[in-house]
Design a protein that fits this description.
The protein is α/β, with parallel strands linked by helices. The chain is built from ten helices and nine strands. Helix 2 (22-36) runs antiparallel to helix 3 (44-57) and helix 5 (103-117) packs antiparallel against helix 7 (137-156).
């Protein structure tokens, strides 16, 4: 998965402006090392972030490359497609995919960016790393979520023909959408793909953390899934929030249940295993039931 647009720049990690001299940058690095070193009571994650920041701008060559925009983010201009442009060696059947993952958020990002830059100002490349880095957090968050949705879509597409997926599903309005509805032998799953720009943890059935800024992602997903279940006349096996691998201490975090549906947070790299193995204790779906649920969802789902 590409580096998050929400990731702080090396200069922000080191607490200096991008215009500082090389000696000022070095002093800031040494100070940050002392303040964050675990042996002196510092935080190990911040200590690792300081080391990584120095590795990206610590030499003249790396700093020049970063400042030129080649080292900020690896943001692809290309959105997800279920059919790769070039032939793949892996010829196994793909999951049935419907909808446009990340498409609504990509459009929202472009609209926010145009409004921020100003009417009448031509944007040569809206995904220019330097431009994205300088945008307000709200705009970078929109792009981060679009990338997260596309990453999840790529993961789900490898599950095989036994799975069907609907992306960007409406539950009453674009802002209340479900990013992915996944149906397979292990159940029916409602999912949000999120990138909050930092670590989160579980508490009382919800995700919490400084980066959430008052958001209640599982509460929001539960409400949307409840509305969609009524609309389609189906029951969800689980409600799942998919996060970057470094956002959780554990690969799968159980949050509880909502009206019989398990609630979970899972890292991107563990999603395939979760969907293939299913939720412990849940009943598999097969035969006529699987066909019936697929028909109900396919006939009734609406996209944003």
């Amino acid at each position: 998965m590409p580096e998050s647009p929400l990731s702080p720049s090396p200069y922000e990690v080191l607490g200096v402006a991008a215009s500082v001299t090389r000696e000022e940058l070095r002093r800031a690095y040494r100070k940050a090392l002392r303040e964050t070193h675990p042996d002196t009571g510092g935080d190990s994650r911040r200590f690792a972030a300081v080391q990584e920041a120095w590795d990206r701008v610590g030499t003249l060559e790396k700093r020049a490359a970063y400042d030129a925009g080649r080292g900020i983010h690896s943001i692809s201009h290309d959105t997800f497609t279920a059919q790769p442009a070039r032939p793949r060696q892996d010829t196994r059947p793909r999951s049935r995919s419907h909808g446009h993952p990340g498409g609504w958020r990509r459009e929202k990002f472009l609209g926010q960016l145009r409004e921020w830059v100003g009417r009448g100002v031509e944007i040569a490349d809206p995904y220019d790393p330097a431009l994205v880095q300088g945008a307000p957090r709200e705009i970078r968050r929109t792009l981060a979520d679009a990338l997260a949705e596309e990453s999840t879509a790529r993961t789900i597409s490898t599950l095989g023909i036994g799975f069907s997926v609907w992306h960007d599903v409406s539950t009453g309005g674009p802002e209340a959408k479900i990013d992915h509805v996944v149906l397979g032998p292990t159940g029916l799953f409602a999912m949000l793909s999120e990138d909050f720009g930092g670590p989160v943890r579980a508490r009382k059935g919800e995700l919490i953390g400084d980066v959430l800024q008052g958001e209640r992602p599982m509460h929001d997903l539960a409400g949307r899934a409840r509305a969609l279940a009524r609309q389609l006349r189906v029951r969800f096996t689980a409600l799942v929030i998919v996060l970057p691998d470094d956002a959780l201490d554990d690969s799968v975090v159980a949050l509880g249940s909502v009206r019989g549906a398990a609630t979970l947070a899972v890292t991107q790299s563990s999603l395939t295993m979760l969907l293939r193995q299913g939720i412990p204790g849940s009943e598999p779906i097969g035969g006529n039931e699987l066909f019936d649920v697929r028909t109900r969802v396919g006939d009734g789902v609406r996209f944003v």
